[in-house]
Design a protein that fits this description.
The protein has helices at residues 75-81, 135-146, 206-209, 292-303, and strands at 10-11, 19-22, 30-32, 35-37, 43-48, 51-56, 61-68, 109-117, 120-128, 149-150, 159-160, 164-165, 172-177, 179-180, 185-192, 217-225, 252-254, 265-273, 277-285, 305-306. By secondary structure, the chain is mainly β. A 7-stranded antiparallel beta sheet has the order 1-2-5-6-7-9-8, with helices on both faces. The chain is elongated.
Amino acid sequence: MPGAVAIAVLVLASSCGAVEGAGGEERATLARYGIEVTPPVGWRARLTRATVEASIRSGELRMRMFEYEPEPDVLDETRRTHPPGPPRPFRAGEFASPELGGDNPEGEGFARRNFSLAGRYFDLFAESVAAEPSEAAVDGLNELVSSLEVSPGDFYPGTIAPPRFEPADGWYAGFDGGGEVRATDHAFAWASTVPYRNGPRDAPPRETLETLPAGGIVVWAWLARDNRFPPTAEPRGKGPPLSLPIKVGRLRGGFGWEGQVGDVSLYRLWGWIGEQYTLDLWIFYGRREPTEEQQAQAQDALDRLRLPDWGSWELDVAR
C-alpha cells in the first residue's frame, strides 16, 4: 500500500485468537467483547479475552487492562474501589515502585487505575522501564486510554462445569464453581479422608487440616481461566502442560510451607490443560513425610479426578 502506513487488524494463527494492531498514519480500532481501543502512532496493542495489552514500540512503556467481575459479597467494595467514568490521565511523576513493596532491582515504575464503564469493572496497570517514563510515552498512553469505549452487556456466553472427584469408600468429596461463564472463571474440587470443613476457596483449607491425622490426605484441585494470564502470557512458559492421569511423583513440596499447619506436608503442581485453563493441584499429607501407602492412596484419588471441557479460550465467534 503506497503512501500511508495502514494499521492492520490481525488474527493470530495460534488458538488463543488474539486480535492485534499497530498504530500508523491511518489508525483503526480493535474491537471485541464489547471493548474498543485505538492504538496511537508508535504503539502496538492486542485485544484478547476481556484484556487489552499495549506497548510503545520502543519498549519504554506498556500497559495491561483487564475486566474484573466481582463476586456478590464484594460488589459494594468494588463499587467503591472502581469509580464510574473514564480513568484520569496518567502523569510521568506518579510512576513509583510496586504498591506492595518488595525488591525492584530494575528500578521500574508502576502506576494503575481502577474504574468502571457501562456497568463493567476494569483494572489497568502501566509499567515503565525507567522509574519515571518520558512525557511523550505517557502522552501516548493517555491517548490510548482515552480511546477506550465499553458497551454494556454480557459478552461471555455459555456455562461451564466444575471438576469432580468420583466417589470412593473412605473419602469425602465435593466441588464448587462453574455455572454461567464470566470474564474470569474459577472452579474447585476436593477429596479428603476426613470431613471437609472449609469453604471452596479456602487455600489452604486450614480447618480441615487441623483435624487431619498422620495417615490422612486432602487433595484439592483448582481450575482457573483467568483473563489476566492468557495462554500466551509470560506464565504460559513457566507451567508444564498437564493431562490426566497425573502421577503423584510429579508434585513437589514437603514440610515447611507458608501457613504451615502442624506436621502436615504439602505437595503442589501447576500447569496448563491445553489452552483451556490452568490446574493448580495441592495434596496435603498428615505427616512430614508421606508413606508409600499414603502416596498410593493419593494416586487413587488423582485417578478419580475428572476435568471438564470448557471449550476454547476465546469465546467470541466473530473475529
